[in-house]
Amino acid sequence: MIQYFSIVLMLVGIYGLLSQRNVIKLIAALNIFEIGLNLFIVSIGFVKDGLVPILTSNNESSAMLYVDPLPHALVLTSIVIGVGVTALALALAKKMHDKYGTYDMDEMGGK
Amino acid sequence: MNTSFIILLIAVPLGAAFLSVLVKKLGKYFLGAAIGFNLAASGILAYDYVSPVIYEIGGFKPPYGISLVLDEYSLLGILLLNVVFALIAIMACKYIKKYEVVLSVALAALNGVILTGDLFNLFVFMEISAIAAYILTTMNKNIKYTFNYLVLGTLGSGLLLFGIAVIYNMFGSLNIMDIQNRMAIISYPVAGALVLPLALIFTGLSVEAKLLPFSGWARGVLKDSNSLVGTLIVSAFSAAVLLAFGRLIDSLFVMSDSLLIVFTVVTVGTLILAEIAAFSKKNLREILLFSSIAQSGLVVALFLQGLKSAALLVLINNVISKMILFTLAAKIGEDNGTDKLEDLKGVFLKNKVLGFGFTAAAMSLIGLPLFFGFIAKANVLVSLFEANNIWLPMVILIVSVIEGAYVVRMLTTLWNTGEEGELAKAEDAKQYKLTNKVRLTIIITIAAIAIVAAGILPLLQMNDWFNFDILSFLTDGLGGV
Fold it and tell me: Taking Cα atoms as reference points, which of A57, A83, A40, A48 lies closest to residue B200?
């Protein structure tokens, strides 16, 4: 179920990228897309009735049913990259506003 | 062979980037040292190469840890990348100031893209190199196009990651070789199940590889770019992404017939449409950027047909030729304030050495005999005929005519002052500027000679030169030295 939700979020993000012309809204749409993607990746590690993937005194055997920890590690990297790209996009947005006096891509013209 | 050089190709430029942040004044020296090290290390790896090496990062055995793969394919890739990167950095060193950190990071990431044997790691390196490219394009002072590039590039990387996540969900591994092994033993038909992830990965990579219709960013970013940014994107970045594309197609793309047709239509469509677009353009850099898009389409189409060696020859020809052509086009634009062909009639009369370098690269691009491009194109055509493929050679030959037409138009305009039937004289071009920088002239001359030598030597030495196999040449020739 969560996978459908995350795919819907990604589609919302893509719709935002296609329909919006405001730079800040475009960055928000990009983030919604990334959040949907990250949720999807986390969801593929899910195992029904799975345990936290840490060996403890209660969960001593590696043969027990654990959730897959790898997607969570991947998502951490993906989130960090997403933050970096968002920061760069916001810096570009500010530069664009300084140059054109607007956040609207249409009002910026060809140059 | 000292295998630690493999990881150092990534670690040393990254270290240089960190040091450049700490001591900004020494940034250019750190960058220079990293480029020099990578050149030397890739040379040593090529010299000592015997057989493929899998480098386990942190000692974790694959598929549990990230691994780097050095085989003939990636060896050729790192050699090409590091040489081209070094030459571009030397030719355009006046633009490097303040961008040393970004360039060091880009060098590390591009080497990583070529070497990595892990899908998620590939995404990380692709994203790092893309972020470096976004920052480099801010040099053009046209932030709107940089922002477009960022949005499209991030969306493309997102789709790539989505595809990788689906692959991981299906096979439980991110290691490319491990996934290949698992594909071989699963019970259900792989090609049908892989349609979604492969379509996502193909689309994601197509953005950076500049395939139509995902290359909307390229025109805005490249048409006014300087000799550092534009040349890096059309040659070094393009080479790394296409090599990664080729590796994935070779190892993961188990395609159904219908999916292969879709991908082929996209790539061949890119080749045809981009060559027509290049023909219709009037500005030097625009012509070259559309030509670059077309060549990317051709390279990926050849990879899809399973012709790895032919694709690599086209890739090498394109990377070296575009490095010369784009550097000179950007320089002409900088010196004269325009790169419009009509306003540059006879500009090469001002500097014939650079003009000859440009001409050699352009001739090689269209694949005329005695230039390296001929070996590449002949190899492509023979390989395709041997594979009983008739329609793709036809398409390639037809677009070659278009390519030849705009290249000849470009050369005649740049060499002649426009008076038909009259001998062009140097004094007719006195209104132009094409300053002579020693570094630039030396590198362009050497690269042009290399293109000609690589076009003539195989003709003299090899009996079966049509089937010139770059990978076995590298193993038997260079690796076996």
Answer: A40
In a domain, B472, yes or no: yes
Say if A103 is an interface residue toward chain B (CB within 8 Å): no
Quote the minimal CA–CA distance from A58 to chain B in Å: 25
At B480, the pLDDT band (50, 70, 90 cuts) reads: very low
Confidence of residue B326 (pLDDT cuts 50, 70, 90): very high
User: Rounded mean pLDDT of chain B?
Assistant: 87
Chain B residues near residue A43 by CB distance under 8 angstroms: none
Which candidate from A17, A84, A95 shows the least CB-CB separation from B131?
A: A84
Residues 31-50 on A with a CB inside 8 Å of B are 33-34, 37, 40-41, 44
Cross-chain residue pair B144–A89, CB shorter than 8 Å = no
Q: Is the peptide bond before B63 cis (omega within 30 degrees of 0)?
A: yes
The secondary structure element, H or E, covering residue B379 is helix B372-386
Backbone angles phi, psi at A51, to 5 degrees: -95, 165
CATH of domain A2-47+66-108: 1.10.287.3510
**Environment class of residue B261 by beta-carbon count within 10 Å: exposed (0-12), middle (13-18) or buried (19+)?**
exposed
- Residue B295 structure tokens: 């060549």
Closest CA to B415 of B366, B368, B354, B333: B354
d(Cα A39, Cα B391) in Å, to the nearest integer? 44
Q: How far from each other are the two terminal CA atoms of chain A, in whole angstroms?
A: 45
Among all residues of chain B, which has the CA nearest to that of A21? B148
Q: Are B328 and B350 in contact (CB under 8 A)?
A: no
Residue B473 is predicted with a pLDDT of: 59
Confidence of residue B431 (pLDDT cuts 50, 70, 90): low
Q: Which residues of B touch A89 (CB under 8 A)?
A: 147, 150-151, 154
Q: Which residues pair with A66 in a beta bridge?
A: A51
Tell me which chain B residues have a C-beta less than 8 angstroms from the C-beta of A105. Answer: 144
- Does residue B297 lie in a domain region? yes
Is A96's CB within 8 Å of B161's CB? no
**Using 50, 70 and 90 to split pLDDT, how confident is the model at B432?**
low
Rounded-to-integer distance, Cα B170 and Cα B110, Å: 28
A90 at the B interface (CB within 8 A)?
no
> Which of B70, B117, B472 has the alpha carbon at shortest distance from B309?
B472
Question: Is residue B291 packed enough to be buried (19+ CB in 10 Å), middle (13-18) or exposed (0-12)?
Answer: buried
Candidate from A34, A78, A88 with C-beta closest to B131: A88
- pLDDT for the residue B85: 94
Instruction: Say which residue the tokens 């004269």 belong to.
Output: B336
Task: Report the domain count for chain B.
Answer: 1
Q: B457 lies in a domain?
A: yes
Residue B9 inside a domain? The answer is no
Give tens-digit pLDDT for A83-99.
Answer: 999 999 999 999 999 98
B340 forms beta bridges with: B283
Residue B481 has pLDDT above 90, yes or no: no
The token pair that represents B184 in the structure block: 């071989």
Q: Which two tokens stand for residue B478?
A: 């260079």
Q: Which two tokens stand for residue B107?
A: 């060098």
Instruction: Identify which of B138, B151, B174 has the shortest CB distance to residue A30.
Output: B151
Residue type, B34: A
